[in-house]
Write a structure and sequence with these properties.
By secondary structure, the protein is of the alpha+beta class. It has ten helices and 17 strands. The longest helix is centred in the first third of the chain and has 24 residues.
């Protein structure tokens, strides 16, 4: 009888101790945390890195549209006027180097964003391993992650930016002439890029040649004065990183003339977008886009007078086709 009582007490104690643990282990996680996505491109490897997502009111962000046009196009794609906008960066493994395209936001926009380092770690890499960072342009969702407070976040990386872009945003005279809403971009350059320059780690480039074997900057002006695309090519395969020349596949692919309130020169941005989309659709190469739903990799396909987005096919092996 005593043994039976002991057994029952032991079972009761075990239940009290272990049932919360079991319950915790079986509690579903309602948050999607993709973090990173691998893709092979010839001998190169591309790893999309998620900085997070943030709500964007596309009916306010997108301009040069007919009344109700943005809402209509969004509805056709089963999207509301406010969507969760991805912030993507890309790690390219090429010729023994680790090259990051854009650096995310760090703590600039709060806890929903700023996860590039976390995603990089999940993918198996550390900030100290990055050899180079290629910036598409000087907006905080692309350069914010260059600094952690007053420390350089990627201490061994050389940062590359077009000379046109750097000369414009690092010139106080240009800030003085800018409209009030654009002055924060100059402040961002001072906070995040000036320390890189002072440390001797900033390199500017002119367009017309490779930065690394198989990696070439391409002029993509309009969103900012010196906005850059980056083309990577290996064994006959190509991917073009478009930065912010395309911010909504649902709206700007069917109607490439629709622009963004953040465009420095909206007319030039629209012209650049039309040219880039036409080339990508005709040639059939991959594109990587900073704000299309993670991982932001896919193809552009012609569709009537516009285009449609064909996202990468999910692949556990990393081939993607």
């Amino acid at each position: 009888m005593k043994n039976s009582i002991k057994t029952m007490l032991s079972l009761a104690i075990a239940f009290v101790i272990y049932s919360p643990l079991a319950k915790a282990q079986n509690t579903p996680n309602s948050l999607n945390q993709p973090g990173y996505y691998h893709m092979a491109l010839g001998d190169f490897e591309v790893i999309a890195l998620s900085d997070g997502t943030t709500p964007q009111k596309l009916n306010e962000l997108l301009t040069d549209a007919k009344p109700g046009e943005v809402e209509h196009l969004l509805k056709q794609h089963y999207q509301a006027s406010t969507i969760e906008c991805s912030v993507n960066a890309y790690l390219v493994k090429a010729n023994g180097k680790l090259i990051l395209i854009d650096a995310g936001t760090s703590d600039v926009y709060g806890p929903a964003l700023g996860h590039i380092t976390e995603s990089l770690n999940k993918a198996g890499y550390k900030p100290e391993q990055i050899d180079a960072i290629l910036l598409t342009h000087i907006h905080m969702d692309h350069i914010g992650g260059l600094m952690n407070g007053d420390k350089i976040a990627f201490p061994n990386a050389t940062v590359y930016i077009s000379k046109i872009e750097a000369d414009y945003y690092l010139n106080p005279a240009n800030k003085a002439k800018a409209v009030e809403s654009a002055k924060r971009f100059f402040d961002g350059a001072e906070q995040k890029l000036r320390p890189i320059l002072i440390a001797g780690k900033l390199r500017t480039f002119d367009f017309g040649g490779e930065l690394f074997p198989g990696i070439t900057p391409v002029a993509g002006f309009g969103h900012t004065p010196g906005h850059s695309f980056y083309a990577i090519e290996s064994k006959g395969e190509k991917m073009l990183f478009l930065g912010d020349i395309l911010v909504s596949d649902a709206v700007q692919l069917p109607e490439p003339s629709i622009t963004s309130v953040y465009d420095y020169d909206a007319g030039q941005a629209a012209t650049t977008r039309k040219k880039a989309l036409a080339e990508a659709a005709t040639a059939g190469y991959w594109v990587g886009v900073s704000h299309i739903s993670f991982p932001g990799i896919g193809h552009i396909r012609a569709d009537g007078k516009g285009y449609i987005w064909v996202p990468i096919n999910y692949s556990a092996s990393g081939r993607g086709q």
